[in-house]
Amino acid sequence: MSTPRWLTTTEQRAWRAHLAVHKLLSHRLDRELQEFGLSLNDYEILVNLSESPGKRMRMSDLADATIQSRSRLSHQVSRMEAAGLVAREDCADDRRGTFAVLTDEGWETMQRVAPHHVASVRDHFVDLLTDDQLEALERAYTPILEHLKSIR
Amino acid sequence: MSTPRWLTTTEQRAWRAHLAVHKLLSHRLDRELQEFGLSLNDYEILVNLSESPGKRMRMSDLADATIQSRSRLSHQVSRMEAAGLVAREDCADDRRGTFAVLTDEGWETMQRVAPHHVASVRDHFVDLLTDDQLEALERAYTPILEHLKSIR
């Protein structure tokens, strides 16, 4: 391997700030969702299903959308199924497998929790940034996202 | 609860970009570290210990620095101890508990892995941003970090 290009001070500060913000923030949002019996991962599943036609997604698509392995998603969906938030459904004319479907209780839970969650996201992230900063953040992150998706 | 202030399009795009970048990025860095038998969490522990005086930290301080519970850290340190990367040491004249210490093997592992890890961080994040963007990112994230630390 050629001589490592260590990070400059500017690079290191930005990189560590990104890591630390995400870690503290996800920890905080997780804790605030726990009051409603949900984790941040649970909430993400509810959002994905609620935005899909028929409030259902193929398990493999849901794993892609939430960036996790099929087996890890399967465990999580089992827990959420036990809590009555989602159901699994086999699709008779589609051998590509199982769907996860948002139950009425899952939908109601999301409706109830969403106002609190959006307040958390505002308090701990969005409202601490100006519109210019939010736009700059998205501009900076879009090529990174495209790159990361292209190598998945 | 008063009427929710839902996120505007700009806010939602920035927020989702932040979440997605972090998720894809940590997944990728984790995978690239797996070639060396480490997770991103393991690497973070090695970095924290290597930067501390005597390459050792009190377990409670290490839990704070890596933003996780004592019990979760304890499990992780046990795995890393089994791999020979760290050792636990009781401090005779300090009843506040156990230290985690970087072993020679842990130090050598970090030296060997660091050039690869920094290349990953460059390829998938740092080198995709300009210096101006990196500085803006840190400026935007600093008040968020301060806020999140103040409410821990």
* Averaged pLDDT of chain A: 94
Biggest sheet character of chain A: 3 strands, antiparallel
The unreliable regions of chain A are none
Give Rg of chain A in angstroms: 19 Å
What is the H/E string of chain A?
A: HHEHHEEHH
Report the total helices of chain A. Answer: 6
Helix content of chain A: 55-70%
The shape of chain A, in one word, is: globular
Order of strands, main sheet of chain A, comes to 1-3-2
Number of E strands of chain A: 3
The most extensive interface, with participating residues per chain, is:
A-B, 51 and 52 residues
SS content category of chain A: mainly alpha
What fraction of residues of chain A sit in β-strands? 5-15%
Name the assembly state: homodimer
Query: Termini separation of chain A (Å)?
Result: 24 Å
Q: How does this structure look, described?
A:
2 copies of one chain form a homodimer. By secondary structure, the first copy, chain A, is mainly alpha-helical. Chain A is 64% helix and 9% strand. The first copy, chain A, contains 6 helices and 3 strands. Chain A has helices at residues 9-34, 40-50, 59-65, 70-82, 104-124, 131-150, and strands at residues 56-58, 86-90, 98-102. A 3-stranded antiparallel beta sheet of chain A has the order 1-3-2. In chain A, a hairpin with a 7-residue loop joins strand 2 and strand 3 (98-102). At the A-B interface, helix 1, helix 5 and helix 6 of A face helix 1, helix 5 and helix 6 of B.
